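step=predict obj=C2H2-type domain-containing protein n=510
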Amino acid sequence: MALLSVPVDVFKHSSQKSPYFARFFSNLEDLETAGLNAQLVFAPGLLAVLGSPTPPTLEFLKSLPAALLDLWAIYLFGLEKQGCRPLVYVGSGTSAAKGRVLLRMKQYDDGFLLPTYIEDALEEGYTITNKGLLCWMPRPGPAEVPVNRLLSLVLEATFAYIFWAMRTPKGGDYGMTHICPWDTNTLEWDGLCTHCCLNEGIRADFDLTPEQLEAQAVEREQKRLAVKAENATNWHYKQMAENYDEYIGKAGERVAKSRANNPGRDAKHQANRVEKALADKTFHCDLCDISFGTKQNLQNHEKSKKHLRKADEKNNPIKCRPCNLGFASQGNLTRHEKTDRHRRAVAAANAARSTADHDMSDLTSADKTDRHSNAVAPVYAVEASTDHDMSDLSNADKTNRHSNAVASAYAVEASADHDMSGLSSADKTDRHSKAVAPVKRAESSFDRNKNTLTRWLQSDRPVNVVAPAKAVKSTIDHKKNTLARWLQSARPADRPADDSAAAQSSSQLN
């Protein structure tokens, strides 16, 4: 903390300064205590440079550490222009907001709230070439803000004089050139600071207790956020109404400049927003049960044919269950069934069904019973939903609905009943072994369906519906007889186990 002895000399020679400095920092011991309590840190190598008989170079200024998040700091900027002397500026970032130093430096990048002579220098063609920290401290709590802000102003004034970052007026030098350890004429730069910050007003309440400062900080933050939102809204709508072209043009320039200084940042932020919106279902279509990453995508979906067809579902009674879509006519459904989308949905449903029908040979009897109980419930539920009430349909509609179902059943049967003439006896036996278990399940299903159809045929049904139902019954009988004959066919002599299984299956079918 040896550097803190310099401010004492600054106080002594400064004719205009706040009385709070004398109240809290009457001697060197007070300054050192404040520095320790604030956890003040100086830039590496800074004290060695200040003790050197030769002034620091621009390279040293460029080597100062960059700003970190959530710090209060004293910073130094360097500006350069081809063919002109470099310029330096010393300032401080001591707002109560989180990440104040980083936010302040971003304002320089965006051209917002610039000091007068920095703005003039940028307009003359200078560019900011380095932004480094001379010293810093963690952002203090509300109770420590008054003293730490006072300490920050002391350090800002001290470093502005040490590095002579002052814009020297004609005929004067503020009476502070002796604070600079070197001849100011030997420095490689000129200054841009216009005044001593010790003369500035101090944004702090020094007469409140720590508890009062804490409560005040909470109240001020709530008020700040409310006023900020109101002012931003009012200003935006006023500019949109009265100064649209200039307002939008400048906003576009600021956005472009900010994106150029931080390439990829906006894309990353947008990706994070989309990911969060999908996870939280912020933009969700309840009707279609689909979530979107942005509000615009949700609005686009709500205008799509799929959503509108879903919204008008009462007028689309004919359903495609694999695709969960409704259609107004059978012709529309037929055209849909020829599309790639429908084929993909059917393939996905078949794949899911195939995965679910896995081998249960490794399960215990209890597990099989539980698995069977769990599987039977949804099957019965589907059967019950499929055997829907046809009382509201005309005879012609019933006949068409049945004809479509029979055609689909015949297509599945023809695909499954393939030619086995090219297989060897051993292959047939293997095929038989793998087929016995599902055949038994199919037999049970056939019997159940046959009984259901028998009862249904005995009920009071229209004549033009009975004939197709009888055809289905005949198809089931035919398939059962075919399976019985196939199981009774000759088996290879070297597979006695399979022969006995076949004989047992045949007797069960008979």
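step=describe
Residues 2-207 form one domain.
step=end
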